Amino acid sequence: MHQVPLSSGGVAAGRFISWYRSPGRARPGVLAAVAAAIAALVLPVGASPALAQPATPQKVARIPIRTDGPKNLDPAKGSTTYDNFAISQVYETLLQIKYLKRVDRPKDYAELSEPLLLAEMPKVEDRPDGTQVWSFTLRPDARFHDDPCFPGGKGRTVTSEDVFYSWRRLADPAYEYENYWVLADTIVGLDEYKAAQAERVAKGQKFDYAAPIEGFRAVSERQFQVVLKRPVVRFGWVLSMFQTSIVAREAVERYGDTLGKHPVGTGPFILAEESDWVPGQQMILHRNPNYYDQRYPAEHMPEDAALGLDKPAGQRLPILDRIEITFYVPDPAMWQDFMDGKLGFVQVPAEYFEQAYIKRTQKLRDEFARRGIVAQAVPLLDFIFIGFNMEDKVLGGYAPERIKLRQAICLAMDLQEINDAFYNGLNTIYDGPIPPGLDGYPPDGEAPVSNRGPDLARAKRLLAEAGFPDGKGLPEITLYSSKGGNNAEQMQMFIRQLARIGVRINPRFVDFSELIEATNNKRTQMFTFAWGTDYPDAENNLAMFYGPNAAPGANHFNYNRPEFDEIYRRILVMKPGPERTALMEQLRDMTIRDAAYVGSMGRTRYYLSNPWLKNFKPSEDFYNWLKYLDVDDSRRAR
At 52, is the pLDDT very low, low, confident or very high (cuts 50, 70, 90)? Predict the structure, then answer.
């Protein structure tokens, strides 16, 4: 899951993203050039001299993030798309999604996944007792970054115990179970371990990382097995999600709560100095001089050849020496930096869409094409919504009058007006939490049950039946949204639309990290978010409503229907097919009927890249693709 903010830009693991932004997210920074110059002259602590005195000119790219950046680079604590984006450069998972391969509605994780920290794809065996055994072999050459946490400052080889340790951390209450949901109710003995350790910690005892878990079996330093309670379909996808990234125990014990600012992973890039990350402004990533032998892929789609994406096949990764990431809250500065040739790529903000494209045809304008700018459209597995806290004393609950209150609010909202005003009318409007492109998406976006407005007559009738005729007696409702983008303008439209039935809104603008914290702590009444689906299965979106995933887990609505949970658990172990799709549709309609959110909209992201950026094939389904990028400085000069 990944979360994102609310506006025209940037939601991951699902990742939450603020509605105004998009699951790509970023902002403008101002210190990148100075910091980059310093980084080129100063030898980073514990780094190879090759970082400070390169034998050849360095390859450097500057790219944007449309927010104030990540809040935490600890895989156990990261929750937003921005966290995912940064974590995926410095930490690694057992598997990764193939960079150039694209498959519509894949039936299995293996269609799109390939080994990353593994030497080969896992072997899977179904046992007569109903359990499923996954056997893994780690690569022999994958090493953690050089860091003072290791003896002599030299990173060591990744072992089986590192995998078990990393996944146990998700069960440690010290990390607030923020990402435990990705492994919950999956591995034999893990849930029981989590409960037993919670009791220990509650009694003042230390969390025991050595306590046995039946489903974790170390065969050797490089070989291990994981035993699942039953064949959980999503487990293969989870192996490439940033939350399951592998960390070193030495780093956690040395840096403690500050690990989120001092990442020590196995990835292609490192943060060499503390100054490389200036929150709210920039992040500078340096090539990991000891990265193991990983190569640019040969497998590609037929259309990739036209963009030259096939040519680097076999080239050693990462290709760039340094990546300067600038954080942009307002979009104008980002757009200007791209137009000035300073940024490698940009997500086109809605307000600049018609400057770059002919709206009717969505074709890039000739003046952009003549500059060598390349346009790529990326349909997102996107769920944009305004959420209700189902535990709120005013809006929450499942009594008929509470459901009618939420339905009235939904029916007063006009998503098409929002789409036209802030998204150039390009968004897809649909019912339910399952976006276009996934099984369970309603035909033509219309579900059998719907709260889609505007229907003011019905909204007013339901509001009266809820006990608040014309809004009388209904307290002012606080709606949380992240700062930046066009969120303030969107909020004014929300206020105006809801005022038509007598519902009063108190807008609360906070930094995106504060929005995540407020929803994690169940402090919000209503909140604006977008969810970027982690993997191409609607189960990932439905996980947002599974009771045990309540905040700080993926279920920020704190939705709690036992009948939903029972069916969801059945879906977890079913292979794709008509019966599973029918159950997902049933859960989709249950969330609509209960009006757990106002929604939904999905976006297509329009990317532009300057001619000097090479090997760029954007994706918002995974984020470790910076290692494939290259630059052509001769084209940058022109």
Answer: low
CATH 3.50.50.60 fits 95-257, yes or no: no
- Let me know how long the chain is: 638
Domain 382-602 coded CATH 3.40.1390.10:
no
User: 562-570: which pairs have CB atoms within 8 A and are 24 or more residues apart?
Assistant: 563/590, 564/590, 564/591, 568/539, 568/542, 568/543, 569/185
Number of DSSP helices (H) and strands (E) in the chain, helices first: 19, 26
Q: Average of pLDDT values for 595-612?
A: 94
Prior bond of 7 cis (ω within 30°): no
Distance CA 164, CA 170 (A): 10
SS3 470: helix
Q: What is the pTM of this model?
A: 0.84
How is the chain split into domains, by residue range?
Answer: 26-90+267-378, 95-257, 382-602
- pLDDT higher than 50, residue 48: no
d(CA 343, CA 64): 7
What's the rounded Cα separation, in Å, for the pair 141 and 293? 8
Spell out the residues 6+ positions from residue 91 whose beta carbon is closer than 8 angstroms to its own.
Answer: 73, 75, 242, 245, 246, 247, 263, 265, 266, 267
Instruction: Give rounded-to-5 percent helix, strand, coil for the chain.
Output: 35, 20, 45
Query: pLDDT per residue over 303-352, tens digit each?
Result: 999 999 999 999 999 999 999 999 998 899 999 999 999 999 999 998 99
Distance CA(22)–CA(533), nearest Å, equals 12
Residue the block writes with tokens 């440690």: 172
Mean residue pLDDT of the chain comes to: 90
Peptide bond connecting 454 to the previous residue in cis, omega within 30 degrees of 0: yes
Residue 637 is predicted with a pLDDT of 66
Distance of CA 431 to the CA centre of its chain: 22
369-392: per-residue pLDDT in tens?
A: 999 999 999 999 889 999 999 999
Instruction: Give buried/exposed letters for 391-406 (b at 16+ CB in 10 A, else e).
Output: ebeebbbeeeebbbbb
For residue 330, what is the DSSP state? S
Determine whether 582 is exposed, middle or buried from the number of CB atoms within 10 Å of its CB (0-12, 13-18, 19+). Answer: exposed
DSSP-assigned letters across all residues of 251-290: HHHHHGGGGGGS---SSSEE--SGGGEETTTEEEEEE-TT
**Cα–Cα distance for residue pair 315/298, rounded to 1 Å:** 10
Query: What is the distance between the alpha carbons of residues 286 and 323, in angstroms, rounded to a whole number?
Result: 7
What pLDDT sits at residue 487? 85
**Can you tell me whether residue 384 is helix, strand or coil?**
strand
Q: Which CATH architecture has domain 26-90+267-378?
A: 3-Layer(aba) Sandwich (3.40)
Say whether 533 sits in a helix, a strand or coil: coil
Angle at 581 between CA 577 and CA 582, to 5 degrees: 120
- Greater confidence (169 vs 72) lies with 169
Cα(first)–Cα(last) distance of the chain, in Å?
41
pLDDT score recorded for residue 625? 97
- Average pLDDT, integer, range 391-417: 97
> 529 with 387: CB under 8 angstroms?
yes
Is the Cβ–Cβ distance between 383 and 600 less than 8 Å?
yes
